[in-house]
Amino acid sequence: MGAWLLLPFFLLRFGLLALLDRQAVGRAAHFAPMYGGERAAYWVYQLSNLAILLFILTARIQTEPSPFLFGGLVLYGAGLLLLALAVAAFASPAKDGVRRTGVYRFSRNPMYVAYFLYFLGCSLLARSPLLAVLVLGFQASAHWVILAEERWCNRQFGEAYLQYMKSVRRYLGPPAKFPPEEST
What is the gyration radius of the CA atoms in the chain, in angstroms? Predict the structure, then answer.
């Protein structure tokens, strides 16, 4: 039964992205160069992602009305909606390469946020503490992957990305606030 949960995810993540821009699929699959502990985090990220997908594929979804069902459906739906919005924005990069439109106005990493919400929703729907732990491991390792991506973006896009970092949070929330610059 869990296999049905994966179908919309893959249709959005790969189908919609390819439909909007085939080259965007390659851009989304690109991983920035990683160093030191980031390499270990990358492998934790990949292995936890595989474990999560296999777990969901074989999961039995609990459909009796409960807070787990309703909370799971809300997180699952929010994750899919955010993923669709992130994919649509990702498929239309800005000329300078820094996306600032759509959900990228509120998060520098809306796809990662979408994955977290979606996977967490699946863990509630399956009422699985093990899946929730896998999701938390996935998200912790994703943070290190994101740090490597941000370093790559700084090198690739320079000042435009630095300004973007100052105005948009890494995950979600109002614009980032930085201490005022010292006057000389």
Answer: 17
Q: What is the DSSP letter of 62?
A: -
Give me 102's structure tokens.
């759509």
As a whole number of angstroms, the distance between CA 99 and CA 173 comes to: 17
Counting every residue written for the chain, the total comes to 184
**Euclidean distance between CA atoms 123 and 145, whole angstroms:** 23
Q: What span, in angstroms and rounded, lies between the C-alpha atoms of 20 and 90? A: 9
Which residues touch 57 (CB under 8 Å, ≥6 apart)? 2, 3, 6
Four-residue CA torsion sign, 47, 52, 58, 59: positive
* Alpha carbon distance 174, 52 (integer Å): 30
Burial of 106-135, coded b for 16+ CB within 10 Å and e otherwise, reads: bbbbbbbbbbbbbbbbbbbbbbbeebbebb
- Residues 3-58 have pLDDT tens digits of 899 999 999 999 998 898 888 888 888 889 999 889 999 999 999 999 999 999 99
